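ok here's Transposase, seq below lol
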Amino acid sequence: MAKMSLPTLPPMKHVKNGKHCYLVTFKNKWQEGKCVAVKGMTKTVAKIEGGETTGKVVWTEEFLQEHPELGKLDTYRKAKAPAKPGGRRSYFLVFEPHDEQVSLRQSFKAKTLTAGPTWVLDHIIKDSPLATALKDVFSPYNRHRKIVSLAYYMYLNSTTSMECYAAFAKNNRLPWQAPLRPSQCSQLFKSISKEDIDKFLKKLNQEVCKIEQVNVGSVNTCYALDATSFSTYAKNLTQEAGGHNKDEDHLRQINLLMLVNQKTGVPIYYRCVDGDVPDIASVLYTLRDIVRSGVNRRAIAVGDRGYFSIANIHRFYQGKASFVMNFKTSGSLARNFITKHKAELEGMDSYDPVLRQHVYSITTSWSYPVNFKTNCKQRRPHERADIQVHIFFDANIKHIKTENLTIALSDLRLRLKGGSKLSYEEQKLAERLLIIERDAEGNCVSIKANKAKIAEYLFTAGYQILLSDCIADPREAYRAYQMHNSMAEAFAVWKQDLRGRFHTSTCSTTAGKIFTLFIATSIALLFKTHASYCKAMALPFDGDKAIMEELKGIKAKEWQDRLYYTEITGIKRLLLEALDIPIPDVAVFTKAEQQDLQSDQELADDEGFIASTVDEMVAKFNNN
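and the structure came out like this:
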């Protein structure tokens, strides 16, 4: 039998780091009569299993490429006894050929990880502005990988509680594979400072602006402005950390306000607002703050009715910020627009076959106060600018709303005549829209519809008004607002997943945890946007969570410091192909590549009320 030739390797020494022990190459030089190590010339080439100074050696991929003969050998580091008592131990390497039978037996005991969902998410965020900004700001101590791993956990498990994260990390392939205990997660959240978050947002917007500048002049860039709220069980929050919950359940509430690129799904800004601050009151500070974060000033903010007010329109003009805003139809100004153009809107000539509804647009003048302090004794100086008013009328919506109201009022009549007890909402609806005559004993004698009140309630049914300072095309304005709605749906699903509860205990961890939740929400929006563009390729599932559930069938085995993917066939392969995600190779990466051998330091107005009550009553009617 031919004698095995031993590899020729450079000198090495071990370096202990917490629970781990690594082998590093080094160079020495003579300096002032002493042999000293040359700074910057050490290089990590291996890790010793078990964290001791002796044991099986696992080489890095880079070192194996330099010494391919090691790939056919098992290497063990052993120690010699000191030559004399109290002397230093010396170490040597032992090389043995692979025992394929042993390897085969070990492979059946290899740890299996759920890998499909995180494999897809890795490719969704890869090279995105989000990933670039995270790496740029949080790379020390691998915080960027830990933050993404925690964000995956939040998104895939619909929770912000870290209690089960360690178990999740043991069973799922993650950017940072080492399980983190709740205390370690808290330390990581505490390490995320306000300065870190500011740097991240600025870097994020630098990267986003690079992409958006490519399309300058060809298409408008629209940012969805929306917010979602979370209640928290924390008892140690300061007044600034959260307001009072509007639902009066004695929990503190935090509102998470975000700006999201509607086309790419990339969130480019967020901030926390007290829970008792209405959306309408948050616009002024937001407009000031986005300047500091470097947000694209040419982008158009698209907001829902919750952000509309005359004062906020003034603020957009004062800040020279463009907007598309959903105008509340219950206001007197909106009703004046509808009254003036009702004949044109409900006529056949205004019908748009693309939008499948009636459309009428006008350009009018908007007067707003000058945005500077003045010594004028009377009225502040005003300026004027053009504003685009786009009015939409959908006859089908008006018909459905009229039919639902008819059913609800008919049911109310029957219940009143039968003496049934009404709920508070039903009683208020009856008082508003019915004329009820009673006898001396309180029995209903006559019940008639209040035609004037009903006509007033249905006056704006089917109408929608969008205001914009810059978009003159009603189709473009309508599309921009519809895309905003898709973002709002994502927020609603995310809030529903969390059941409106945000688990945090103290102020020191709250800011970092909210930041990680922002990253989780960003990942969810990026995936939702990516999947929406792939629907034409016949995705077998509509919801993103259904897709992720199917992808859990893709497994990877952790064996000999590598991950080996199992066969990917059938619907799982079709899903990856439809999402334009590459099929993983047999051996994808080593843990050393994933975790960098660095320090492991853990650091209701009346109309809205009536509408909701009517919907509930129609649902009851249909069920019966």
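fwiw The first strand starts at residue 12 and ends at 17. kinda neat tbh
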